[in-house]
Amino acid sequence: MFQSIEIENFRGFDHLKIEDFKRCNLFVGDNNSGKTSVLEALCCSTNEGMTISLPALNNQREYSYLWPNFWRSYFKDPENKEGFKILVHLAKDNAIEESQLYKVNLLNPTESIQVDKISNVEEKVNQDGVTIEISIFSDFIALDQSKAKPRWEPRPFQYYRKGKTEEGQYRTHLESPNVTATKFSEAGILNFITATVSYRQTRLTRLLSELIESKNLDSAIEKMKIVFPELKSIYFSKDNEIICDISLKDDIPIALLGDGFRRAILIIMSMFRIKELQFSEFILIDEVEAGLHYTALIDLWKAIHQAAKELDVQVFATTHSMECVNAFTEAYNQLYADDDSDDLRVYRIARNEKQEAIARKYDRERLNYIGQTGWDIR
User: Fold this and answer.
1) What fold is seen in the domain 2-373?
2) Residues of 244-277 as b/e, b for ≥16 C-beta within 10 angstroms?
3) Looking at the predicted structure, is the pLDDT value of residue 269 above 80?
4) pLDDT, tens digit, 9 for 90 and up, residues 14-26
5) Nearest by Cα to 15 from 72, 63, 84, 71
6) Distance of alpha carbon 313 from alpha carbon 219, whole angstroms
7) Does this model's pTM top 0.70?
């Protein structure tokens, strides 16, 4: 698990250090304060290949144009020869196991970057590191899902529908011409849920297929029911559409359900799928409350808190909503009312009088005080 992160010359940050991460972490702050940039930095720091995911994230934001100076936008000062740096400390059972430094330099021409990874920074071990070069006009194009070919394997499975068990089949994952790059990109894309993503047939198809294959779908549905008690099952139709049984007379394609429903389903599916990935055990959610009515937020956070603990997945999310912050705390309090555990944090990204980026930290005790007094920390 991440314990801390230190960022230099990345996006809008000259320097930012955030410490004492817990299992569930929520970032608040003004528009353009850097909340999403922190998520992107965490994405980059998983391993040296994850930087490939940055251009792919723009597809989720419904922006696929790759401008020539794309990589320059990730540097606060593109002329700084030191590039940008991301230092993370990874911990297990509250003890630091490893520190990793990622140094990213802009190459000439500016369509490429160089990524250096140095492990165990403080112990001065393995200083040779690992270096890769990523070109936006070579590697990323190979990740274009339109060039991947659907691979159909009629694998049977059973699903519960209207009081009886039926047979079905599901589609396996897409084949890509660039296996290594796709694995890195896949980890980043599946881990990162951007603010604009609610429904993409290919992504949900992939997630649902993997959950069926790993036999985790029933467990995921149990968590979904915390938010949507009317949900009974999710399955593939004979035409390979994702169908939901939500206790109505007829089952409904998920594409016809609301954005908030689809987004919550996507978050929970992603958490269960992430556990199967070899690259990371965390999820990044930008504007977690998007599309959801405020009355559903406590139940959503209950599902996220429970799944995070059971699956050993670390959660990083952003919000603009004080209702979401209070729901984040209240859900945790309801789940763990009888113990003094403190496995959540809220960080407010702001600027001090010198316009330096800072992260103000709020633990469970302070969050309870904020909820009682109505103090707004957004």
Assistant:
1) Rossmann fold (3.40.50)
2) bbbeeeebeebeebeebbbbbbbbbbbbbbbeee
3) yes
4) 999 999 999 999 9
5) 84
6) 15
7) yes
Q: How confident is the model at residue 194 (pLDDT cuts 50, 70, 90)?
A: confident
pLDDT digits (tens, 9 = 90+) for 272-314: 988 766 556 889 999 999 989 999 999 999 999 999 999 999 9
Pairwise CA distance, residues 61 & 343, whole Å: 31
Q: Where are the domains of the chain?
A: 2-373
- Helix (H, G, I), strand (E, B), or coil: what is residue 40? helix
Give yes or no for residue 184 having a pLDDT over 50.
no
Two tokens, residue 119:
């492990």
Integer Cα distance of 101 and 41 in angstroms: 12
Burial of 297 (0-12, 13-18, 19+ CB in 10 A): buried
Distances (CA, A) of 21 to 271, 320, 330, 347: 18, 20, 19, 9
Query: Is 41:5 a contact under the CB 8 Å cutoff?
Result: yes
Quick: pLDDT tens for 23-52.
999 999 999 899 999 999 998 776 555 566
| Strand, helix or coil for residue 17 | strand
Which residues lie closer than 8 Å to 2 by C-beta, 6 or more apart?
21, 42, 88, 89, 90, 91, 282, 314, 316
Which token pair is 172? 């396996």
Q: How far is Cα 54 from Cα 43, in angstroms, rounded to an integer? A: 8
The beta strands (E) that lie in 149-216 are given as: 155-161, 164-170, 192-193
